[in-house]
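Handout, section 4.2: multi-component inputs.
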Amino acid sequence: MRPLLPEQVADVAEVFRLLGEPNRLRIVLACLETERTVGELGETLALSQSLTSHHLRLLRTARILRAVRHGRHVAYAVDDDHVRDVLRNMVAHLTEPHGHDHDHTHREEPEP
Amino acid sequence: MRPLLPEQVADVAEVFRLLGEPNRLRIVLACLETERTVGELGETLALSQSLTSHHLRLLRTARILRAVRHGRHVAYAVDDDHVRDVLRNMVAHLTEPHGHDHDHTHREEPEP
DNA sequence: GCAACACATGAGCACGTGTTCATATGTTGA
DNA sequence: TCAACATATGAACACGTGCTCATGTGTTGC
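Output:
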């Protein structure tokens, strides 16, 4: 594997840093599949309006989330395909049965 | 995709937090394919012996790296398959010739 | 034994960051 | 226009964290 350039490492670290805060991670996870309103996020995750907005600002600035206005509301959704893939990958690992299973060559839907 | 348990979210956030520090990320990346001794890491990454060891301690405690003694040296390598996969995934994305254009200026239709 | 080496650990400090409170900006309906 | 709503932003503070310096622990060779 080719070594990464210093700037690439810094970018990756920045994304990880933002995802490394539990509330921020919960926000991003909530915005992974569908877009969510600020108020929606605050209520669902039990965060103050101000705190929610502050975190969203960081995630938006880092191009992890995108913001779209719908009337008075502003909806956020994951906008970075890398981040989406990384998170899906991580979630897939977590929801898989335990044990050191190196086989990740198949994509299947879980049982109903 | 079913929602994660709070403890799972906390665990993921903790891993991201540790990978979110540039020097720590560089250490993990250096230990991704093959194991590296402490001195090796410090010299390669231009980190003091103490700082290298401090970071390694955090990564070892979080089960991201494993430590093996070889005589006087202690070698570290990535021990967590999830982390390895996430990092390989991230690196793969970065090294791909993606022409991802972040056009953030599209408008939205008003509500009825 | 005891040096020399390789690494680990504790204390302390400067800096960053998550949170709250207050206030500002923007949007809709009457 | 005004009021109510939804979100954004700034200031301030408490806490966490990355780093250095000093010292401790463990291993090999003489």
